[in-house]
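Ornithine cyclodeaminase
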Amino acid sequence: MQPFISHLKQGVPLVDVGTMRSLINKVGIETFLTELSVRLEQDFARWQQFDKSARYASHSESGVIELMPISDGEFFSCKYVNGHPKNTHVGLQTVAAFAVLADVDTGYPILLCEMCLLTALRTAATSALVAKYLAPKNTRTLALIGNGAQSEFQALAFKALLGVTHIRLFDIDVNASHKVKKNLADSGLTVDICSSATEAIKGAQVITTCTADKCNATILTSDMVGDGVHINAIGGDCPGKTELDADLLKRAQVFVEYEPQTRIEGDIQQLEETFAVTEFHQLVNGKVHGRVDEQQLTIFDGVGFALEDFSALNYVNELIGKQASTRLDLITQQDDPRDLFSVLQANPAVQVAV
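Predicted structure tokens:
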């Protein structure tokens, strides 16, 4: 039996929250973010090899449930993820997610993984990777507008990849800002809490907007933001949910992950289809230039794309390797693959492992 086939028959490795926490702590979160950004850059560089589509989204009044599939012909991944902003009012997370990585040749799953922590990590790594191409030289100050679950990951990713030293926080709930400052107390970053978005962006070379409300909000207006900065707009991620003033977008060179998806979900949903944007893979492959001068205003209209999950899942799969992990008996293992009914006739103590 081929080694890989034998591996598939051993059960599906599960990276649950505890396992993910152990992996991150073993590697170190900043190293994890840095190594993940390398994998992301490599995968964006081979953009044309991927079978891509906008994610499937099921919308309701309270939020959205999405499926995010992608394949490079060797591996297939798909993430289940929701976005329910009001969940925090009842003690639940805004986002709950998990994903599968599968072998294309056999169709067998080879990894099941939590995606709450991993989504935050891949989002932060993607933001910082894009900023490496677009942020002003010697960026040291990052403004974070919206201080929810993503904030600490963003701060540490920009520290690790760009050398950011100062973080300026603003949230309409000041307790959220205090939460971030407390969590970053031992990070080596200087963290200031500001009383308004206008105050927070003063002196910042990069501005991250990451708010949760499912509405057409205007977090930044054109008159608030001067030239020469980079905006990492990652909170607008579904129809009817935006953060940036349309006039601000029109002033900037706007970069996106996958244009068909961002037209539906991103801040550019406010603009005509003729408004020109640039997909990030073109920057990675040197087909277009990023920041051409220090006065240029750039915006990353990031909505999250399946390639980023694919990169993260493959990175985690390499990290766990062959080390002992929980394995799930998801696929029946009867002697005759055609005789599925025989599983019902077998000894339950032998056949049922979960």
